[in-house]
Structures are given as structure tokens and as C-alpha cells.
């Protein structure tokens, strides 16, 4: 029986051929494919300016430059996210301020967010975990009331909507990831959706050594930019992927619905909320660990014996050693800690067959019924 990983990219032959075209063209780093990819992404995000980089982490780093984050500035976010979300704040000299999640959505608790605002708060970074969008109405009402910038970490939510409007097509800054595991990929890559042409111009400088090139062939450097540019090889993959993103997400939705239909409530799994607005980046039940006589690593090992790959996204970030050394400890964010300790990511990717979902459910049935106390 084939091993079923928890995710796998779908890259079509036209895309692979176009990568070959780029490699043969004589221009393989940032060039016409990047420009075409950015134009296509701008169309996708409602005409807003979009610039691409070599990771979403880089997009977040540049976003913090664009809002001119200063040492000691506070940025509020969630502990249940990929640690990139807070690492970038620390590397920019800011202070991440964590608040607990809403146990139902598993996204940042917006009441807790509002309560954590101080005179030092400059920005908030909402994360659409697993693709489920944070309540944008409430979020932007809070941001307006306290005059905060919003950097949406939409790494997982490309194609998700809030009340029918595509995430990234409205709001403040919005970061997207094209990492191999995301809903579309450039192998590695990311993008930032911005508000206006001036932000995009500043972004371009931060992206590549602070350089501005003038029509007469001269150049200047007026800020210490970094090296974040995406290659044309990667952009060619992105252009090929973007053609399929809506179909990919539609297929994910069908597969997620099949999980809801087939998972036996007797297994005691705490399922994610149903949603028509999620892009179903991940399908993540919580294990009923207090009712099981096996740990999560043992559960994962047993699923592997059934040929099923299980992911963990994520252990809460405040309990990693670097963050513990900053003073974070167990018990500070109980809802996030419970989710982080018991979450599992089931296989979900566009090329999966319906029968693959059935296989996962059958394996879950076998492993969990045997392990229930
Ligand atoms: C994947 C991810 C990132 C980082 O994306 P990269 O492109 O790997 O840098 C940041 N935040 C979240 C929530 C992610 O899932």
C-alpha cells in the first residue's frame, strides 16, 4: 500500500516545461516571470499592489520595515502559529505580545487581543490558522479604534474569504506563503499585498539591498535593504500554480467535507469548525489525549504503520526554549496549549482521492478504538 503523506504539491507538466523554458532562456533570476507573477497576483487580490519574495518570513520582515517598527514596540499575535510569526518581530527589535486563542476557531481571541493593547502597541498580526479566517470586521474595528497597523499572516489562507471577500483583497498589509506545503507553491516563496504604490516602491528597496535604479542607468541606495528577491524559475512555478488555486481549494473543500461526513463521533476527536470561507489548508482534529492510553507520538507511529502520514501544526511557540527563556511558561495560554498539545493534521491535498479519505478514517478507527481507555 502506498504511503499517504499529510500533504503533497500538485505541479502540472506545463509548469515543469515552463521552468525548463526559463532555465534555457539565459535569464534565470528575478526578471520577466517575476513581473508577470506579480501582475497575476495583483489581479487575484483585487488589483492591490503585490510584490513577491523568497519566503513569507521575508514578506513579514519587510512588512515590519514598512510600518517602521521601533525597538520596544509591541505587536500582538497568537502562540498557536508557525514560529516565524513571532521570530520576525523579535528580529525587528519589537516585542511580541501573545494572547490566547478562541478554543472554537483556534484563532486569536479578539477580546483578549483588545484587552492586551497598551500605549506601546503598534500592530497586530492575525493568523488564519488552517485557512480559517480571523473575523476581519471585528479585527479592523479594533485596529481603527486604537490606530494599529495590521499585518495579516495569511500564509495558510490564500483563497479563503471573509463574508465572501477574498482575504488579501481588502484590509492592510497581507502576507502569503508559497512554501511547498501551502495551498499553492513556488517551492519556497512569499508575497505581500499592500495598500498603495508608495509602499510597493519601499518594499522593492527593502527586498534588494535598498537599490533604486534610475532611467539614465544610474542608481542609489538610501536604506540598508536585504536579499529577498524571488527567482524567475520560482515565479514560473507560481504562475503555473496560480491557474489552479481555485480548483485546488475547491477540491480541498470536498475532501474536508468527506472527513466531516465519515469521522465517527465515537472516536472522541474534537473537530475543527465547519466553514464555507476556509481554503481548508489543513484539517486538524484534536486528539482526546485524556481518554487515550497512548501519546501523540505513539499515535503518529501507529498511523504510519497504516501507511498514513500525520503532521503537527503546531506545538505552541511560547514553550520553545528561546521563548521560555524570555519568561513564557506553561499555563499562560491554556486554550492554545491544549490545542498545541493535541492537534494532528490529517492528509489533505488536492490530488487526494475520495478513497484516500476513507483510508485515513478507517486507520483512525482502528488506532483510536484500540487506544481508548
Ligand atoms: C508557512 C507559514 C509562515 C512562513 O512561511 P515561509 O514561506 O515558510 O516563510 C508564516 N506563518 C504561518 C502561519 C505559516 O503557516
UniProtKB/TrEMBL annotation:
The keyword rRNA processing does not apply. SUPFAM superfamilies: PLP-dependent transferases (SSF53383). Keywords: Pyridoxal phosphate. The modification N6-(pyridoxal phosphate)lysine is found at residue 182. InterPro entries: DegT/StrS_aminotransferase, PyrdxlP-dep_Trfase, PyrdxlP-dep_Trfase_major, PyrdxlP-dep_Trfase_small. Gene3D superfamilies: Aspartate Aminotransferase, domain 1, Type I PLP-dependent aspartate aminotransferase-like (Major domain). It comes from the Bacteria. Pfam families: DegT_DnrJ_EryC1. The active site is at residue 182. CDD domains: AHBA_syn. One of its GO terms (biological process) is polysaccharide biosynthetic process. The keyword Disulfide bond does not apply. Signal peptide: none annotated. GO terms for molecular function: pyridoxal phosphate binding; transaminase activity. PANTHER family: DTDP-4-AMINO-4,6-DIDEOXYGALACTOSE TRANSAMINASE, TRANSAMINASE. Belongs to the DegT/DnrJ/EryC1 family. This is dTDP-4-amino-4,6-dideoxygalactose transaminase. It comes from Andreprevotia lacus DSM 23236. The lineage of its organism: Bacteria, Pseudomonadati, Pseudomonadota, Betaproteobacteria, Neisseriales.
Amino acid at each position: 500500500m502506498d504511503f499517504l503523506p499529510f500533504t503533497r504539491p500538485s505541479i502540472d507538466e506545463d509548469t515543469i516545461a515552463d521552468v525548463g523554458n526559463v532555465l534555457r532562456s539565459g535569464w534565470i533570476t528575478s526578471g520577466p516571470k517575476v513581473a508577470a507573477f506579480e501582475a497575476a497576483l495583483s489581479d487575484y487580490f483585487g488589483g492591490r499592489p503585490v510584490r513577491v519574495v523568497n519566503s513569507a518570513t521575508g514578506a513579514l520582515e519587510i512588512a515590519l520595515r514598512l510600518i517602521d517598527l521601533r525597538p520596544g514596540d509591541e505587536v500582538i499575535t497568537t502562540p498557536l502559529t508557525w514560529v516565524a510569526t513571532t521570530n520576525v518581530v523579535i528580529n525587528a527589535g519589537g516585542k511580541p505580545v501573545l494572547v490566547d486563542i478562541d478554543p472554537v476557531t483556534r484563532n486569536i481571541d479578539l477580546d483578549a487581543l483588545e484587552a492586551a493593547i497598551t500605549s506601546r502597541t503598534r500592530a497586530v498580526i492575525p493568523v488564519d490558522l488552517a485557512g480559517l479566517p480571523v473575523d476581519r470586521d471585528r479585527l479592523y474595528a479594533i485596529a481603527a479604534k486604537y490606530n494599529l497597523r495590521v499585518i495579516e499572516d495569511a500564509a495558510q489562507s490564500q483563497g479563503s474569504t471573509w463574508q465572501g471577500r477574498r482575504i488579501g483583497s481588502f484590509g492592510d498589509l497581507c502576507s502569503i506563503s508559497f512554501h511547498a506545503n501551502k495551498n499553492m507553491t513556488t517551492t519556497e516563496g512569499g508575497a505581500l499585498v499592500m495598500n498603495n504604490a508608495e509602499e510597493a516602491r519601499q518594499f522593492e528597496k527593502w527586498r534588494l539591498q535598498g537599490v533604486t535604479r534610475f532611467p539614465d542607468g544610474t542608481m542609489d541606495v538610501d536604506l540598508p535593504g536585504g536579499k529577498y528577491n524571488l527567482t524567475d524559475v520560482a515565479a514560473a512555478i507560481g504562475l503555473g500554480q496560480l491557474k489552479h488555486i481555485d480548483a485546488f481549494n475547491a477540491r480541498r473543500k470536498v475532501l474536508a467535507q468527506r472527513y466531516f461526513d465519515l469521522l465517527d463521533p465515537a472516536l472522541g476527536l474534537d473537530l475543527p469548525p465547519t466553514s464555507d470561507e476556509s481554503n481548508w489548508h489543513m484539517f486538524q482534529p484534536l486528539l482526546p489525549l485524556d481518554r487515550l492510553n497512548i501519546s501523540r507520538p505513539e499515535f503518529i507511529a501507529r498511523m504510519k504503520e497504516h501507511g498514513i502520514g500525520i503532521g503537527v501544526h503546531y506545538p505552541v511557540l511560547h514553550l520553545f526554549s528561546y521563548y521560555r527563556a524570555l519568561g513564557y511558561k506553561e499555563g499562560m495560554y491554556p486554550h492554545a496549549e491544549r490545542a498545541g498539545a493535541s492537534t494532528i493534521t490529517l492528509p489533505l491535498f488536492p490530488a487526494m482521492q475520495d478513497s484516500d479519505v476513507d483510508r485515513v478514517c478507517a486507520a483512525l478507527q482502528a488506532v483510536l478504538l484500540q487506544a481508548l481507555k
